[in-house]
Specification:
The protein has no helices and eleven strands. By secondary structure, it is mainly β.
Amino acid sequence: QVQLVESGGGLVQAGGSLRLSCAASGRTFSWSAMAWFRQAPGKEREFVATINWSGSSTGYANSVKGRFTISRDNAKNTMYLQMNSLKPEDTAVYYCNAARDYWGQGTQVTVSS
């Protein structure tokens, strides 16, 4: 059974940092693109960042560019999202996605002003 499990969310003050992890099990995603999405209350799920299979290519939403960094460790079947200079508008449930079809259960990030 394929599982994606996010961790690392929490409550942080504006300007602070968090590092999210997405650990995959059940199959390897070493050859698949992976991504982070987020969904704030009352809003649709939106794209945050993506990374190709090797980690050599990344992409970011304009709203997080320069503040967030996506990375992966294929040996650990794990993806990360380093979030710096957090803002209250970053408050959302963050989801990882692998190979377009697989989703984690989400981890809550709350940024207080």
